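anyone seen this seq b4? input:
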Amino acid sequence: MNKVVRIIDLSCSTAHPWQWLKLLHDFHGRQGGPPEVRLTVVHDDNDYLANMRILLSNEADKLKIPFQFSSVIGRLETLDLSNLRNTLDIKYGEAIAISCSLQMHRLLVVDDKVSCSGIGQLQKMANIAQLNQMASSVYSPASTLNYPQTPSPQCKMPKLLATFLSAVRALKPNIMLVMEQDANHNALLFCDRFAEALNYYAALFDSFHAVVAANPRRADERSRVERMILGEEIKNILLCEGVYRHERHERLSQWAMHMDRSGFDHVPLSFRAIWEGNQKLMSFGLNGCQSKVENDCLLLCWGSRHLYSISAWRPHKGSTSGSREHMLVQPQRQIIG
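predicted toks r here
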């Protein structure tokens, strides 16, 4: 086992210490003793980082685990990617694990008017026509669900995402864990985004209702999350365009293509990791939540609606064959109902 493990938490505003508390306890119980753990967290709230440092450092002291906490103030899209190793203060010889939760879609931001030749003006005209139709007395917003869904534009990978993944690949991480909303909110046409968002967030709100039904004391927390986080996401998806629209959620198959094109291989999640994730869901009272394993990745669902995907990756090792084809042909396995 490596003597030094460097963990990079790129989850920014969604970063939370509980997963690292659990990891410290897992390391504590390992045969042969724990490694030295160096955790680097990227976040834009200095006070939050200070509290996180105190909590994790105190727990590491109790467990007698060598532990270092470092932080980088900022967001994923504002990191200096020209020398990511220096930005994150990563030393050579460390075993590197990267966690990025609900952030990479922000790197898909492009100016839609110029990202795909000839599409920008048509998109603008179609969006205006659809908004006028929805506002008329003849059509209701629900009628937009009858429109055929168009996929996200298959243009070249956005420069910011390509630069980020290239910088990450240069670090040669042992593992990179990615969690993203599993929805197609990156379509060019407003109507497509509206229909997808309507179904996606309806399912998400239903799951929140189930949590509060099982834990009534969390009603205020639910209200804050819906208003301050989900409400802002919905507004950004529906009301913003171009570089101002940063909530560009995509499906697992699309992320697989991005990762494959950037030189990453898919790594199957372990059975234990999937089982522990399911147990955590059950602890929140989410009995209606389903967990599916698709191509050795985890999909969290509410009913038949996919909500989140969790996948693991590492840089290619001398092979030009990618993970995309593998992920598109493997069958699904349902874990819990």
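The CA atoms of residues 200 and 264 lie 28 Å apart. The beta strands are 4-9, 36-43, 67-73, 95-101, 175-181, 264-267, 289-294, 297-302, 305-315, 332-336. kinda curious what u guys think
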